[in-house]
Amino acid sequence: MRPEKGELTQAKKTLVPGLTEADAIDRAKRGDAESFEALYGMHKRRVYSLCLRMTGNTAEAEDLTQEAFLQLYRKIATFRGESAFSTWLHRLAVNVVLMHLRKKGLPEVSLEESLEPQEEGPKKDIGARDNMLAGSIDRVNLERAIESLPPGYRIIFVLHDIEGYEHNEIAEIMGCSIGNSKSQLHKARMKLRDLLKTSRTERATRG
Questions:
Q1: Closest CA to 142 of 154, 152, 151
Q2: Is 34 exposed, middle or buried (0-12, 13-18, 19+ CB in 10 A)?
Q3: Does one domain contain both 24 and 72?
């Protein structure tokens, strides 16, 4: 019997003693509800975190987390172990969130924008690691700034800089080119820098 959304929230807090993830996957594929609940307990926090970062809305993130695990229940039999289970599950969750955003028709930054000419100065690899953002000490303000990004920027930033997807993977997921993905990431990072700078200025003014 297919679990309803409310039932998933009742997943046991303690995992089945001695049950490994691989065992839980194998048993869940055969319809074992207890093993599926164990998988839910293992992965719900990271899936929720991913949904929250991509949507910037706690209520939507909760609903989408439940939807992601309902999708998992339906599709777990198709998991072949060609990648880590967590990677496979996160890709499934990303698709759930993207479908939700598309249905809502949110105004997203165009993913078909061409790469803009670089500003004068040292040439930068716009797809490279941004050490300023990576080294940001104030994680709370960084999280808030991420939530403030336009949806298109936020999704690319979360997928690349937080979830660790490569640009070729993002391009496949989003249906855009690798160049578009790099361009959106560059713009997202610039926007984040501005948001963090504004936040620091406001705190200094209040202080």
A1: 154
A2: middle
A3: yes
Q: What is the pTM of this model?
A: 0.69
Residues 136 and 91 in one domain: no
Alpha helices of 9-134 — where are they, by DSSP H?
Answer: 21-29, 33-55, 58-75, 85-104, 131-134
Neighbours of 180 (CB within 10 A): 21
Q: Does 143 lie in the same domain as 100?
A: no
What is the mean predicted confidence (pLDDT) over 185-201? 87
Nearest CA-CA partner of 147 in 18, 49, 33: 49
Terminal-to-terminal C-alpha distance of the chain: 58
What range does the domain containing 149 cover? Answer: 131-206
8 A C-beta contact, residue 133 and residue 189: yes
pLDDT tens digits for 143-179? 888 888 888 889 999 999 988 889 998 888 888 899 9
Structure-token pair, residue 30: 């055969």
Nearest to 108, CA basis, from 147, 53, 152, 171: 152
Residue matched to tokens 């698709």:
95
Query: Residue 174's domain is classified under what CATH number?
Result: 1.10.10.10
* Distance (Å, whole) CA 172 – CA 137: 32
The DSSP code for 128 is S
State pLDDT tens for residues 32-53.
999 999 999 999 999 999 999 8
For residue 146, the number of C-alpha atoms closer than 13 Å in the C-beta half-sphere is 28
Per DSSP, 35 falls in state H
For residues 94 and 145, membership in a common domain is answered with no
